[in-house]
Amino acid sequence: MSVQLNEVQKGLIDKIAKENGFNDYELTTNKGTEKGDNFLGILTTVTIKNGKDKLELILKSAHQNEVFRKAAALRAAYLREIYLYENILTEFKKYQEIHNVVDVFDNYAKIYGSSTVEESECLIMENLKTQGYQLWNKQQPMNSEHISAVLKGYAKFHGTCMAMKHKNPELYVKITKDISSSIWENEEFVTNKDLFEPFFRGVMDSGYKSIKDDPDLTEFLKTIEPKILDMFSNGLKDPEYKISLIHGDSWCNNLLFKYEGSDNNIPSDIKFIDWQISHVNSPAYDYCYFFLAHSPKEILDDYKTYLKLYYDTFSNQLRSFNCDPEEIFPYSRFENHINQFMLFGLYMCFSILKIMLCDSEEAPDFGEMTEDEDMVETMNFEFKNYDIFKERIRNLIVFVKDSFTAK
Known about the structure:
- By secondary structure, the protein is α+β, with helices and mostly antiparallel strands.
- It has one domain (7-403).
- It is built from 15 helices and nine strands.
- The strands form three sheets. Strands 1-2-3-5-4 form a five-stranded antiparallel β-sheet.
- The termini are far apart.
- It comes from Psylliodes chrysocephalus.
């Protein structure tokens, strides 16, 4: 089904077409995603074709709903992602080339153009799916090979960033100073307790409901709740943790995997997409959010193996720049960060696992929010896989209780 483009989008696509040698072309557009797959954007597939030559693109555009735009700081999110693609990731590429890094971090899509026009914010990128990249089935935990691939990708990303920070602090400060804080950090929604605490309570209630018949786990959750709230009030702003650029949105629909042959158990490559809430924080933010949201119980039980895998990859990336990992981010400090952010990762799972386990028709439609609704109400939806949600949340709470809270 063809998608109608606005004048800003048409002009941008025409510019990209001509820059890539398509002076006379046929343009085809189609819906690029299902409801529940992408919440901060509308995805449209774009094909520019002239005879046998064609250019396959993805148009990612902002919602027009004013209630949602305000609640999600949508314009700030798009401006940030555009900046990441056109500036920071470009600088990372140059920096790795200068240092002759062999195992480079290039796990992101190529951007062709963007618009910062108010209410027409958008990015146009290569369509990775036409190159064989696929989304993971969000309703299933990942296997070891996929967990490992993602953690290695994050480790290379964090390692590249921290190497630049150590060896070229002027450049690092220059490219990160305007995005050091989260897009929501100074928004009224977070700074106003009357607005934020009901949202926080709504997310926590999802956790409590999942273990309501287990008094020990309920008491445990009550014990850590103030610590989780303090992470938002103080911990995420603590200079101890503001040490690296992070991806910030570490769920599976922001990851694309490629495979060799017909075996979809072992990915040959991975791409990170959706950089809209990237900011400066601890690598443990990305690690814990991703690891808890996607690991089955057997991987959770073997968590130390994956900590070592991440840190070994991170260390090798730093050594590619002739940096000493023990000087920049020793393993003991990494473990301390992990111990803190596991609580934050658990909290994130109370909401993101709902999104991952619901079917498309059950997913909330933030683009249809009204003045009478808020994010808490929108996220309070019914879905048929609720029993699976409860089991996974229970396993996560047990894991965090047994593995981290005594440290």
